[in-house]
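ok so i was messing around last nite and threw this chain in just to see what happens. nothing serious, just curious
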Amino acid sequence: MNRKLYVGNLSWTVTNEELRAYFQEAGEVVSAIVILHRDTGRSRGFGFVEMATEDQARLAIATLN
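result:
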């Protein structure tokens, strides 16, 4: 299993900090990035969260999915 999780169906207004805070409920977040459109700078509606351990990644999937 990978520690990096794809997160889809994000609101256009979600920030990196909000994404990180949400996933911290499941454990230590190494990084949280909302992917932005390169021309407009607007969110593309998805991102990636990397958890510190695989167990925390599994917990995040189980509890936040």
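not much to say yet. Strands lie at 4-7, 29-36, 43-51.
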